[in-house]
Write a structure and sequence with these properties.
The structure holds two protein chains of two kinds. Chain A has helices spanning 8-60, 64-74, 97-109, 111-115, 167-204, 220-253, 255-265, 271-295, 310-323, 342-359, 414-424, and strands at residues 80-84, 119-122, 139-145, 151-157, 306-309, 327-332, 337-340, 362-369, 373-380, 428-433, 439-446. In chain A, β3 and β4 (151-157) form a beta hairpin. In chain A, α1 (8-60) packs across α3 (97-109) and α5 runs parallel beside α6. By secondary structure, chain A is of the alpha+beta class. Chain A contains eleven helices and eleven strands. The two termini of chain A are 52 Å apart. A five-stranded mixed beta sheet of chain A has the order 6-8-9-11-10. In chain A, strands 1-4-3-2 form a four-stranded antiparallel beta sheet. In chain A, strands 5-7 form a two-stranded antiparallel sheet. Chain B is an alpha/beta fold. Chain B is 38% helix and 21% strand. Chain B is built from eight helices and 13 strands. A five-stranded parallel beta sheet of chain B has the order 2-1-3-4-5, sandwiched between helices. In chain B, α6 crosses α7 (195-205) and α6 (176-187) packs across α8 (214-225). The longest helix of chain B has 21 residues, at 121-141. The chains are: A alpha+beta, B alpha/beta. The A-B interface holds A 248, 252, 255-256, 258-267, 275, 278-279, 281-282, 285, 289, 292, 296, 300-303, 306-309, 312-313, 315-316, 319-320, 323-324, 334-335, 337, 342-343, 346, 449 and B 2-4, 26, 28-29, 32-33, 35-36, 96-103, 117-122, 166, 168-175, 178, 210, 212, 220, 223-224, 226-227.
């Protein structure tokens, strides 16, 4: 089945090619029709004239032998002429519409012939009176009477002279057609360029990167689309940034009251109660931090991208966890250089290690490299993530509750933040359940040397 | 973290003395911090903005300044910079987490330490104590010019940004403990340091309240310092005595 091409260029090209082909075919058909009409009328006229002249010539000859010879002499490939005592065409052959049409036409052209007892018929219609059927197949037969009762018999092929395809015309048409198609394609490509730019801009649209507005040029519709896109992205940015600022301001301002509360608890006499309040305040702080991280999409506002040793960074985190008595190990490459921001990367990997330890009892980090990437795998021995949830755990505010889940603080932003950070470093992050038990997190980041 | 801070931190210590200037625009917070520190025997003078901080600093003598970064008018960073130009007075900055910690910690302001709000009071106390101890030790050993950077081999250690840069130009992340230990080594290059001496020197520097044994710290530091050549070892073990940083060090103040 024919499938329409997907691109504007493809579709326009298809339509154009179709139209061109239709034009060529119809034009050619009309041209041939015209030529044929001319050819047919010319042939009929020639035929009628020849009928008359041959009849007169033979009429004027007395000798029977001479008549026969002359008839032969006047024959040509397109018109066989015989003289005979009998008519080639049956006298009682029923006229067909075609034979009648030819008869009338000839009659019109040569009114003399009309007055005679001209017999016209097609051999194929059974009009052949005498002679071998085979020889006269597909022939138009005409018999004209002479004064003495003998006949001049004509036979002419019904099919027109073999018509050769005019190759030069075909070639010219083809070349011109290809030329038009080529020029049209180039023009179309240029016209659709702004559309592609628009599509790319829409695909890459990212709240965190302040892309320049896309250029508004090209055809009117495309210009309008580009303009609307620019307006829309501006509105989205403004809207999001206003909300973000409001939320960030609130989160930020909560720090001072929480600090005050922490200091106030120091004045309390009940150590148990103080510990509980401290824990709550710790949770609140974590939530505020997570929210602020999420709002800044994990990007550190003053962060700078520079060459860093990712293994050194990971070992700082791992060592700190080890010091707290947690079961974390780091294996693999001793060094691997990437370009990144230390503060946000620390946040990303701390989140992942914290998660591994929250849901399991141990975390194992391994670092290896390929030609272009550093791969860091963080494996835990926890329950993993149900297959149905594995896709959405990195969405904001999604928390996976599993049977073995302890009371886990947080608002479900850790993985979202981590993902934003990894993506902003040109990396990728994939979660996979391990074959036996636990979750494996695969992080790939571009290596630098 | 909280539960790991043992109870002794709650008690007043022998060296918990000194005059602290606290600059913060939140009146309640000023009051609470002052009350908290006074409980341990510190004398606290608190002011609300940069202008009064300047005046107070001119009039009195202080052992430590606690500065909020976000102050109305003159910012904490401004005061810190002014103060650094004339004295070595220890400074702790109070920051919000969204402020770039490294920027506040030293690069621009030259502060000695930073604490992010909302801070844990006991952790805050530990930092105050550690900084005071360090400052007192430093006045005894009296370091006149403060270098900004030390280079050894193709490595460089930036004191302002507290960063170690490898020969490949890559930033090698160090924990506070590792950084402090490396600074001690660099400052005492080509001298054999006993475990006790290292402990004493590093402890004075360390703001990290969780001390690891020196051996663990050194093995971690070695791991981060070794690149390419396994034999290239800066920190040599001197059998029976201790460790030595066997590498010529150049200090720069530029």
């Amino acid at each position: 089945m024919f499938r329409m091409p997907q691109t504007v260029l493809g579709r326009a090209g298809t339509v154009l090619l179709g139209a061109l082909m239709a034009l060529v075919i119809i034009g050619y058909w009309a041209f041939r029709q015209g030529i044929e009409d001319v050819a047919v009328s010319l042939r009929e006229r020639t035929l009628a004239e020849r009928l008359v002249s041959i009849q007169r010539t033979i009429q004027s000859i007395e000798s029977e032998d001479e008549r026969d010879r002359t008839a032969h002499g006047l024959s040509s490939t397109s018109l066989e002429v015989h003289w005979s005592k009998v008519s080639l065409v049956l006298g009682n052959a029923s006229p067909t519409t075609e034979s009648t049409a030819i008869e009338n036409r000839i009659g019109e052209l040569q009114p003399d012939l009309k007055k005679q007892r001209m017999r016209i018929g097609f051999a194929d219609d059974g009009a052949l009176g005498t002679g071998p059927t085979q020889a006269y197949a597909h022939m138009l037969l005409i018999s004209l009477p002479l004064n003495d009762g003998s006949w001049v018999n004509f036979a002419t092929p019904t099919v027109g002279t073999t018509y050769h395809l005019p190759y030069h015309i075909l070639l010219t048409t083809l070349v011109v057609g290809c030329g038009i198609a080529l020029v049209a394609m180039v023009l179309l490509h240029r016209v659709t360029q702004p559309l592609r730019v628009l599509a790319t801009a829409a695909e890459r649209f990212d709240l965190n990167s302040m892309d320049k507005p896309i250029a508004e040029h090209g055809p009117l519709e495309v210009r309008r689309a580009a303009h609307s896109f620019n307006m829309m992205s501006h509105r989205i940015r403004t809207l999001v940034s206003e909300r973000t600022q409001a939320l960030a301001a609130v989160s930020h301002d909560l720090r001072t009251p929480i600090t005050r509360l922490r200091l106030r608890t120091e004045l309390m006499d009940d150590p148990e109660l103080r510990a509980l309040i401290d824990q709550d305040l710790g949770d609140m702080t974590a939530m505020i931090d997570a929210t602020l991280d999420y709002l800044s999409a994990g990007a550190n506002p003053h962060g700078e991208f520079r060459k860093i040793d990712i293994v050194a960074l990971l070992s700082t985190i791992v060592n700190a966890e080890t010091d707290l008595g947690r079961n974390v190990e780091l294996v693999g490459l001793p060094h691997a250089l990437i370009v990144g921001d230390v503060v946000s990367l620390k946040r990303a990997f701390s989140n992942l290690i914290e998660n591994a330890l929250k849901f399991g009892t141990s975390a194992r980090l391994s670092v290896c490299e390929s030609e272009k990437m550093v791969q860091i795998v963080i494996a835990d021995d926890g329950p993993g993530i149900p297959a149905t949830d594995i896709e959405r755990v990195m969405e904001p505010f999604v928390r996976v509750e599993t049977s073995r889940n302890r009371s886990t603080g947080g608002v479900g932003l850790g993985l979202t933040i981590t993902r934003s950070i990894i993506l902003s470093h040109g990396g990728s992050i994939i979660l996979k359940n391990a074959e036996k038990q636990g979750l494996n997190v695969f992080i790939d980041m571009p290596i630098t040397r | 973290m909280d539960e790991l801070l043992s109870d002794p931190a709650q008690e007043r210590r022998r060296d918990d003395y000194g005059h602290i200037l606290l600059v913060d625009d939140d009146a309640q917070l000023r009051l609470l911090v002052a009350r908290f520190l006074e409980r341990y025997g510190f004398i606290v003078t608190s002011v609300q903005d940069g202008t009064s901080a300047r005046e107070t600093l001119e009039r009195g003598t202080f052992d430590l300044v606690i500065l909020d970064v976000m102050l109305p008018g003159i910012t904490g960073i401004d005061i810190c910079r002014e103060l650094r130009a004339t004295s070595n007075l220890p400074i702790i900055m109070l920051t919000a987490r969204s402020d770039d910690v490294t920027r506040v910690a030293g690069l621009e302001g030259g502060a000695d330490d930073y604490v992010t709000k909302p801070f844990n009071p006991r952790e805050f106390l530990a930092r105050v104590r550690s900084l005071l101890r360090r400052a007192r030790l430093n006045t005894r050993t009296s370091r006149e010019t403060q270098p900004n950077r030390a280079t050894f081999g193709q490595w460089s250690l930036d004191f302002l940004r507290r960063e170690l840069i490898s020969p490949q130009g890559a930033l090698i992340d160090l924990s506070t403990g590792e950084y402090d230990l490396l600074v001690v080594f660099v400052e005492h290059a080509n001298k054999v340091l006993s475990r006790d001496a290292l402990m004493e020197l590093a402890k004075a520097r360390m703001s990290d309240p969780f001390d690891r044994t020196i051996d663990v710290q050194i093995s971690r530091l070695r791991k981060k310092l070794e690149l390419n050549d396994e034999r290239e070892q800066f920190i040599k073990t001197v059998r029976g005595t201790g460790y030595m940083f066997a590498m010529p060090v150049t200090f720069e103040s530029a």
